[in-house]
Amino acid sequence: MADTVRRIVLDKAGLELQIIGFGNKTTTKLNFVIHDTSSDIVAIADKFSQYEWVKKERYDTLRIRNEMKEVVRRGFELHRFELYRLGVEM
After folding, report:
1. How far apart, in whole angstroms, are the C-alpha atoms of residue 59 and residue 74?
2. Quick one: which of 71, 4, 90 has its CA closest to 33?
3. pLDDT at 10 over 60
């Protein structure tokens, strides 16, 4: 399966960043995903099981803890950086 699995704990929110290496390719994923940012209510899933996100919770954007907002911001920055590094256009 994976050559390397590393987990970095983001101390502010207790969420994890997962870096998985397959051969010479590395994939970086946060362990949560925002499903809908088109409205004031967002759904965040924080558990991945059998290739699907589960344990979804809905949040009013004003109710998301500041620490969570910072993790989301950092996650998107990291994602954009990885895409740039790999030469993928967004």
Report:
1. 19
2. 71
3. no
